[in-house]
Input
Amino acid sequence: MADATGGTQLQAHIEIRDLTMAYGSFVIQRDLSFNVNHGDIFVIMGGSGCGKSTLLKHMLGLISPRIGDILYSGISFTRAGDSEKEAMRQRWGITYQSGGLFSAMTLAENVTLPLQLYTRYNSAEIVEIVAYKLALVGLAGYQNYYPAEISGGMRKRAALARAIALDPEILFFDEPSAGLDPISSRLLDELIVQLKESIGATVVMVTHELPSIFDIATNSVYLDNITRTMIGYGNPVDLRDHSDQAVVRQFLTRSAATANEDSP
Amino acid sequence: MDTQAPAFQLLGDNHGESSLVLSGDWVQGHGSGNFDALQSELLLRHPAKLMADGSSLGDWDSILMAFLLQCHNLCREEGIAFEARDMPEGVAQLLAVATAVETHQPPVESRGSLLASINPVHLLHKVSGNLQESLGFLGEVTIALSRLLAGKANTRFSDFKEFCYQAGPDAFAIISLISVLVGMILAYLGAVQLQQFGAEVYVADLVVIGMLREMGVLMTAIVMAGRTGAAYAAQLGTMQTNEEIDAITTMGISPIEFLVLPRMLALIVVMPLLVIYADLLGIVGGGIVAGGMGISPVQYITQSEGALSFTHVAVGLLKSLVFAILIAIAGCRSSINSGRSSAAVGQAATEAVVTAIVYLIVADAAINIIFQQVGI
Output
């Protein structure tokens, strides 16, 4: 198994160090250590209930770690002050599982909000940039629609438009293709890759869609819900073919799980 | 700072190929190219092809992309071929992604103007539409109620008990406070007038009749509209947003039976009890004021007993039943048909309270007029 903490020449974009996550006395995952490198499409995977989304929420700073630290470009997020955290968050784009679009605002207003708050563009420029961001996700002309008036797939893309409003350095996705048909899901994957390459971002996503994982992921971590720690780290194709953990190989080949894999 | 302002130059002959040479740093804080100037010049020349040249571009961010997209869209509208050449890495790819899907043309619809919203005809139309929907809703509820009486409705008794508790005991504190104060207000109001005739002792009659017939039930109903009616609207509106109401419908359960009936029945059971409680506290409140004006408690009680009659109590209780139904209808109807967003939930709650209060006052007036005509 690759050792996550040792021997990186380049500074990693995100470092997870000895992270233990817990709700009360219930430990969700312990001793997580891995790096996400610049330009990676990094996938967090694992069975249902293993703590994938919780890990993402820790990385986003929505939950504080019980033990351990999370570093962005070498700077600890956990120990950062409020204004530093604010500055770091402005370099992230996040899409939530159910979109997280503000339902009382039109798509244009949703994308406008971060631009108004954090950039020096004037209002005429913002109108044009919003049109461009919506066009990037294939929603040109949908400025005045409310999130309730468009389909689920369009909402995901609209959320992506808001996430890339500030040209982020890191894009976080929580189950981007959940609830999408295979074609839409494939198109969304392609869009993520194209955007990532053109704006040079690092992508972190939680997903258990195998096609997505093999198509676009460059690196991944597997969280186990029996041992409650990471038991796989590396390129998903390598993990599928060479992982020393049977559970990881089964997950990635979709073979029938052994009886002990499903916890009640 | 060695950044240069963004600039462009339109070169080339008429009707042939024009090139748009972009230069400078297209980043935030430095402004953008003057698109209107480009547009008018381009329309004047109207070349067959526009070649955007990025070979002398400096730094760039989304503002450049927004400008290029505008150029691209303008060229498409005008039938001019558009091509980007020598662009920095990323720009060409982003432009390709952004122009992959045609611009959606939303259907033109007129949103209501301010003038329309205060137009009396429009308002009347809205109110009558609201009333019509409420009557339809009442019809559905009646059908559900008849199914309940026949023992065929999917109404859960445990829900009903829970709603009774929420509507009743939970509301004691606010009802107590308001009733005592309303009783005191009535007593003060009457005392000042009656003192002029030396008839202070009749304050007791005024408070008893006022509370029993009118104020007790009306104030309780208004509190319940704001408290319980709004809660019902928020609950059902959130259920609509979460597709819970769809789930109930597709399970073959009528949302009216499952969601509306237990809430309405809880209000119908609880309201008369709350009204009796409010009446009692109101009379006590009046007694406090009367005591302060030199009327002895015994005198106040004796006088109150004289004023007390079964008719007054019955009028109050009858009103409480009508009001309970109105509050439940206003609370549930607005939300069960609401939109599916957080804004729609808020709108439904507002509508529930406003509609309920309008219904309450109108119904109260109507009942009073009828009773006065028949001499009750």
The longest helix of chain B spans residues 203-241.
